[in-house]
Amino acid sequence: MKESVSNFKKTVIAYIVDKKITDEKEIDEVISAMAESPLFKDLTEADKLLIRNQIHSEYSITLDKGVAIVSEYKPWFMNRKKELSMKYWDRYKQYLLNDKGFTGPTVNTMDDVSDELTDLLGDPTVSNFQRRGLIIGDVQSGKTANYSGLICKAADAGYKVIVLLTGTIEKLRKQTQQRIDEAFTGMDSNAMIKQKVSVEVGVGKYDKSLKAVSFTSKTSDFNAKQASNLGLSLNSLNDPVIFVIKKNVNALSKLNDWFKTFNVNGNNKIDASLLMVDDESDNASINTNPEDKDPTRTNDLIVKMLSMFNKASYVGFTATPFANIFIDPDSDEEMQKNFIQLITIKSILFLI
Question: Which pTM was predicted?
Answer without folding.
Answer: 0.76
